[in-house]
Amino acid sequence: MPQVLFTAHLRRLAPPAPVEVAGGTVADALASVFAQHPLLETYILDDQRRLRRHIALFVDGERARLADPVGPNAKIAVLQALSGG
Amino acid sequence: MTPPLLVGTRKGLFVLEADADDRWTIRHHAFAGVPVSITALDARDQTLYAGLAHGHFGVKLHRSDDLGATWVELPAPAFPAGFPPDEADEPAPSVDLLWSLEPGAEPHELWAGTIPGALFHSTDRGASWQLVESLWNEERRRQWAGGGYDGPGIHSILPDPRDRGRLVIGVSSGGVWLSPDAGDHWTVGGAGLRATYMPEGREEEPTAQDPHRVVRCPAAPDRLWMQHHCGVFRSDDGGRNWIKIQGLPLSDFGFAVAVHPNDPDTAWFIPAESDEKRIPRDGRFGVTRTRDGGRSFELLDDGLPSPPAFDLVYRHGLAVAPDGRSLAMGSTTGSLWTSSDGGERWHHMSAHLPPIASVQFAV
Questions:
Q1: Best residue in B52, B56, B98 to probe A by mutation, most A CBs within 10 Å?
Q2: How many distinct structural domains can be found in chain B?
Q3: Which residue segments constitute the domains of chain A, with CATH numbers given?
Q4: Is residue B203 part of a domain?
Q5: Residues of A contacting chain B (CB within 8 angstroms)
Q6: Which domain holds residue B259?
């Protein structure tokens, strides 16, 4: 199953270590995590379930989008841009 | 005893308490590093609410049952997923800022105003929220425009204390809207407001007005005061009709306004230079006060910095306590002042807070 890792800035709400979840796309895999961590979803997605502007997704080290398919051994990273002051 | 102060800043919420000699200390600092856009206290059950604007992670809402010592996160007001966009909302909307929070008529009832300009309603202490579709679907809402932000927003929600189901809301830029029945139906108010930025002949269009902040006198609820983009206005009929107030010292541009809780003729404003600069005119930072309904004004600056000063007070950055004498204001440069005599003298509580968005007495 795909593995999902969240930025340390979300450790208060997200699984502290990579978790294995079901899902054939990035969005499906994230939805599996959100089912266990309901407040986390609004930190990653906006009201319309679009990826927030300052969140970046990587699959196996490459930038990815929510709709991208993922294989059974994929490593999905949910990171934030380090912008602001 | 002066009530505690809630100060929402770019780097968290500060809860300050005064001792018997009016010396203020920081009692709590919550959400360190996170912008706090608005606070609300429901005095009926002493519940405190804070709206957050995470730059990366979106709008959040938290609730405290112990005046800021501990907090729980609640679902923030949000547009329904899959909400059909229309020509005014392309792409489909998502809440960008929680800009106003106000207790409603019933226990546990709350209103929330947002950017983009929407009103949300909760009947369970913020545990769930519903979009007020009657306002969102109002045809003339599509004429609303952005003011200081990219989209229009609701910054003032004013229930009538005689019947808290009767609402007035202030929209930047979309005018003043009135509901007689807790948001089921809406009419546009604001006759007499004048937006000089509009093309000739359209200056008085009610949906083009840019109220920066609207307040209502609790003891005389038909009396409202407005700091508008184009001056100061007063209403004596609950927001339907307005008259422009002349003769303010320094400038009639600004963001904040406060009204005395028991005297509808007393109100405070904080002038700034319109409108491209948004700093004190000639570096003179002061507070203007009328005590006769706007016929005359005093400039109050005892205890405030000498020129040049570049403090700007945002629309929620000026507060008056129920005694009508205790005032507080916070600036975008992180200064916080209090007064215990209606603004005659100001005490500089701190010059070193983060930029301040909101100041509220916790009563």
A1: B56
A2: 1
A3: 3-80 (3.10.20.30)
A4: yes
A5: 9-10, 39, 42-44, 46-50, 52, 54-55, 80-81, 83-84
A6: 5-80+92-361
ipTM of the shown complex: 0.90
Q: Is residue B86 part of a domain?
A: no
| Per-residue pLDDT tens digits for A24-33 | 999 999 999 9
3-state secondary structure chain B: CCCCEEEEECCEEEEEEECCCCCEEEEEEECCCCCEEEEEEECCCCEEEEEEEECCCEEEEEEECCCCCCCEEECCCCCCCCCCCCCCCCCCCCCCEEEEEEECCCCCCEEEEEECCEEEEECCCCCCCEECHHHHCCHHHHHCCCCCCCCCEEEEEEEECCEEEEEEEEEECCEEEEECCCCCCCEECCECCCCCCCCCCCCCCHHHCCEEEEEECCCCCCCEEEEECCEEEEECCCCCECEEECCCCCCCEEEEEEECCCCCCCEEEEEECCCCCCCCHHHCCCEEEECCCCCCCEEECCCCCCCCCCCCCCCECEEECCCCCCEEEECCCCCEEEECCCCCCCEEEECCCCCEEEEEECC
Cross-chain residue pair B92–A43, CB shorter than 8 Å: no
B68-125 pLDDT per residue, tens: 999 999 999 999 987 765 555 567 899 999 999 999 989 999 999 999 999 999 999 9
Contact A46 B76 (CB under 8 A): no
Contact A47 B56 (CB under 8 A): no
**Residue B228 maps to which CATH number?**
2.130.10.10
Residue B87 domain-assigned (yes or no):
no
pLDDT digit string (tens) for B87-97?
555 678 999 99
Determine whether the interchain pair A42/B79 forms a contact, defined as Cβ–Cβ distance below 8 Å.
no
Please indicate whether, in this complex, the C-beta atoms of A42 and B92 are within 8 angstroms of each other: no
